[in-house]
Amino acid sequence: MSQEVLVLNSDYEPLNICNIRRAISLVFLGKVDVLHESQIPIHTVSATYTSPSVVRLRSHVRRPMPQIKLSRRSILARDNYTCQYCGHKSSDLTVDHIIPRRLGGGNTWDNLVACCKKCNTKKGDKTLAQLNYTLRQQPKKPKYVPFISLTKFMNGAKNEVWRDYLPIFADTSVKSEPGTTVTCERETVGTAAG
């Protein structure tokens, strides 16, 4: 039961991603309507049900506009788990300061990038110019702040059914299935040949 379910507010705004157990309890309590079902059956002692994939709350939930937090997970999600120096794609990445801390580089959206361990070790506390590294794209803070976390938003954008409910932004794109491009809000920091 590790399947995730997209939870929408009554106005179809994405609010959260919850686990299947929580979604089923919301369905049986009458708090949500099921908009899409997945093909994964749920078996009980007396019946078999189809599991929900997208649910919508029956009553509106008012939430303050969230603030996106600068964290390792947010930087990696923004950069699509791709080293911004060599282009290596992995879930085992570190975060690197473009301008080293010893030279006054801070922990900011435009100074942090995803980096593989090999490139991070090679770069150390040197500048990009010293290694002749360049970035594919300039790092920046994401403009869109989803109610769900940036990491879950990026992963959710790969779900074909969920795409209809997630906001679309023209400035970035994420690859999902081969030959398919999903457009979503993601500020990427480019990699360099170096």
Give the proportion of residues in helices: 10-25%
What structural category do the secondary elements indicate?
Answer: alpha+beta
- Quote the beta fraction: 15-25%
- Terminal-residue CA separation: 44 Å
User: Strands across the major sheet, in which order?
Assistant: 2-1-4-3
What's the story with the biggest beta sheet? Answer: 4 strands, mixed
Overall body shape: elongated
Uncertain runs: 169-194
Rg measurement, Å: 20 Å
Taken together, the total number of domains comes to 2
Provide an overview of this structure.
- Mean pLDDT is 80; it is low at 169-194.
- This protein folds into two domains: 4-57, no CATH class; 65-194, no CATH class.
- It is an alpha+beta fold.
- It is elongated.
- It has five helices and eight strands.
- It has helices at residues 20-28, 72-78, 117-123, 128-131, 150-156, and strands spanning 4-8, 14-19, 32-43, 48-57, 94-97, 112-115, 173-175, 181-183.
Task: Give a short synopsis of this structure.
The protein is an alpha+beta fold and 194 residues long. The chain contains 5 helices and 8 strands; from the N terminus they run ββαββαββαααββ. The relative contact order is 0.17.
Helices and strands, with pairings:
Blueprint: E1 4-8, E2 14-19, H1 20-28, E3 32-43, E4 48-57, H2 72-78, E5 94-97, E6 112-115, H3 117-123, H4 128-131, H5 150-156, E7 173-175, E8 181-183
